[in-house]
Structures are given as structure tokens and as C-alpha cells.
């Protein structure tokens, strides 16, 4: 079953597109980058992988994008709005359905920053923007390492934002020939995510796997 939810957050309305099988094994919540949408090829590929495993998928358009802005603004406000959306989805699906968060680029950062507070079992981080283009000496690796849950990173080896090291997350999949948009071979993105998502297939009501974070 497909559907739509409108969630009014403290920082404006968000739109949620739902693919909702009966008695889903898990709930995967995905979101876009700072200047993109939920129809991005890599997001759709991961959605399809999750649906094939019996998961439900919610694709969230965040308030700043619905308002027509290209920049997300304050990280704190973005995270607050995200957690309000997650709360609405939790009420819909119930706390016994394992929650997996994910997104591409800026959305991957949001998923990492809020994972622990959201009670997520894991994170799928697509095209994680490790280093700002205008300040390549700065790194966002702490957002990966402090997620509090296991993180799968899927990046292209030609991503101008850089590629996290293997120690920065539970798993880092590097796709040859891909840039930041991960659109050269979306099926490969879905294939990289599928084994990661499979751990929650049929896991409703079971405890999440132990956390292993990257880094020293």
C-alpha cells in the first residue's frame, strides 16, 4: 500500500511518502540531500531493496525543501524537525517495528546525528559528505563515529566530498566510477544496502544487534 502523511513540525510542514506492506519487518525512513528530493535514484534503489525484504519505507521531504529553500539552515532545527517526523511515524507503526534511518548527503548527516535519540537500530548513509568543498581541511567524521548505532556508508570513489575510511563506520562500501550523485548505477547502491537491511527482515520484536561504532 502506498500513501502520504503530512507532518506539521515546529519548523514547518514535512511530507512523507509511504510504501507500507502489511506487518512490515522493519521501517526504513529515508530523506534527501540539501538540494534534492526523494526521487533521487539512489534513494529509490534502497527503497526497492527494503520493500523486497518486507520492510516499510517512508521517504521524507523535510520542511526546508517544502518551503523551497536549498540550504537546510540550522542543524539543530533540522534535527528537531526530523525527530518530530520520526515520532509521528513511530506512532503509526509502533515501537516494536525496528527503525532504520537513512538519507543521502545532508540527509545522511541528519540520520547519523539523530539516530540515538530516535531509537534507530541502524543508519544507511548514502554519499556522506565527509569534507565541505569550500573547506576541505574540515571533516565531519565525528557525525559518523558518534551515531551510537551501526552505520553503513555507500559512497562513490570519485565523490569530490571525499570517502570515509573503513574505520569510520561499521561498513563502508565504495562504488567504482560513482560521484556524489550515485546515479551511474543505482542498482549497485541497492545491492550494497540489501545485506545490511536483511538483518532486520523478519526481526520484528527482536532486540537490535549490538552497537559497533568505527574509529579508534
Which stretches are poorly predicted, pLDDT < 50 over at least 5 residues?
Answer: 204-216
Please tell me what the overall shape is: globular
Strand elements, count:
8
SSE run = EEEHEHHEHEHEEH
**Largest beta-sheet characterization:** 8 strands, mixed
**Rounded Rg:** 16 Å
Strand content: 15-25%
The chain-level structural class is alpha/beta
Oligomerization status of the protein chains: single chain
Q: Strands of the largest sheet, in order across it?
A: 1-2-4-3-5-6-7-8
Share in helix: 25-40%
Distance between the termini: 44 Å
What is the count of helical runs?
Answer: 6
Average pLDDT level: 92
Structure description:
This protein is of the alpha/beta class and 216 residues long. Helix content is 31%, strand content 23%. The chain contains 6 helices and 8 strands. The chain has an 8-stranded mixed β-sheet, with helices on both faces. Helix 1 packs parallel to helix 6.
Amino acid at each position: 500500500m502506498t500513501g502520504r502523511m503530512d507532518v506539521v513540525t515546529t519548523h514547518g510542514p514535512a511530507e512523507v511518502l509511504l510504501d507500507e506492506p502489511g506487518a512490515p519487518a522493519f521501517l526504513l525512513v529515508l530523506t534527501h540531500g540539501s538540494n534534492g528530493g526523494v526521487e533521487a535514484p539512489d534513494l529509490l534503489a534502497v527503497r526497492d531493496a527494503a520493500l523486497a525484504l518486507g520492510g516499510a519505507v517512508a521517504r521524507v521531504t523535510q520542511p526546508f525543501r517544502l518551503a523551497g529553500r536549498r540550504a537546510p539552515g540550522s542543524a539543530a532545527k533540522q534535527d528537531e524537525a526530523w525527530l518530530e517526523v520520526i515520532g509521528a511515524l513511530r506512532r503509526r507503526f509502533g515501537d516494536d517495528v525496528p527503525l532504520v534511518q537513512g538519507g543521502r548527503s545532508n540527509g545522511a548527516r541528519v540520520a547519523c546525528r539523530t539516530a540515538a535519540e530516535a531509537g534507530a537500530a541502524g543508519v544507511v548513509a548514502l554519499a556522506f559528505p565527509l569534507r565541505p568543498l569550500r573547506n576541505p581541511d574540515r571533516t565531519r567524521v565525528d557525525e559518523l563515529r558518534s551515531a551510537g548505532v551501526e552505520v553503513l556508508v555507500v559512497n562513490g570513489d570519485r565523490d569530490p566530498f571525499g570517502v570515509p575510511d573503513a574505520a569510520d563506520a561499521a561498513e563502508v562500501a565504495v562504488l567504482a566510477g560513482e560521484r556524489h550523485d550515485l546515479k551511474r548505477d543505482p542498482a549497485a547502491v541497492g545491492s550494497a544496502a540489501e545485506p545490511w537491511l536483511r538483518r532486520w527482515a523478519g526481526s520484528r520484536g527482536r532486540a537490535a544487534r549490538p552497537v559497533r561504532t568505527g574509529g579508534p
